Prior knowledge:
CATH topology of the largest domain: Tetracycline Repressor, domain 2
Largest sheet: none
Low-confidence stretches: none
Helix content: over 70%
Shape: globular
CATH superfamily of the largest domain: Tetracycline Repressor, domain 2
Strand content: under 5%
Amino acid sequence: MEKQKDENSKSRILEAATTLFAQKGFDGTSIREICKRANVNLCMISYYWGGKQELYRGIIENLLEKQIEYSKSFLDLNRNPYDISVDECTELLLKAMEKCVDFFYTNISSDLIVILLKEQQRPDFIVKSPVLDYIRKMVARILDKDINDREVIFKMLFMLSQINSPRILPAFSLRILGQNDFCKEDIDIIKENVKLYINKIIKAEAV
């Protein structure tokens, strides 16, 4: 019971901090304000993270932990994509990207997107995502190129943009549709676009 209470407090702090950092920025947000919004004691920040900077990094780390845990049902991150055939790798990539759509539209809030976009502009910000790294390895396997090849990097980026652009550019998606959120039909269209793009890559490589 005590452990569950601690986890609930931690989750509330992360949620409150994400909202406030997104709205007011890192410098404009105080520890006291976060704790008040999360309805927790001030010492809980120190208990879990140590300070505001560590809490800020903890938001990204929490996302990556969720991503890894979510991926366990469809990916074996220890399996080398070069140990399977191109066809098997392609099927796995299609499945993984479909799951990425589900994850992005159910686990990443609009406030978290704001933070991620801000962090992307920092020259020292590097994402260490085992899941996305593995997906890039699959793309490299299919294209028969090195994982750090320019074409692999950009094609991976274009795949991700098929997933996240509707949320990053709501003025060109939700606002035009007159919606506040994405419905199942929208998600299905996004998944189909990702699938079409991946298949286009494969066909181009086969020519």
